Amino acid sequence: MAFYKGLSEKSKIKTSEARSMAFYKGLSEKSKIKTSEARSMAFYKALNEKSKVHGDNFKNL
């Protein structure tokens, strides 16, 4: 009985560890997506700003 209890305790710990790992992985994946989204947004904004500047230069010429 003690052996079985020990096993079930271990398996409980493992499943909760697996859950927390999956949760953590999910979080890190989400944060990766957010940072890449932010990067692409910043890149797009920078492109927009550049094109605006060039557009003004063309108008002034």
From TrEMBL:
It comes from Trichinella pseudospiralis. It comes from the Eukaryota. This is Uncharacterized protein.
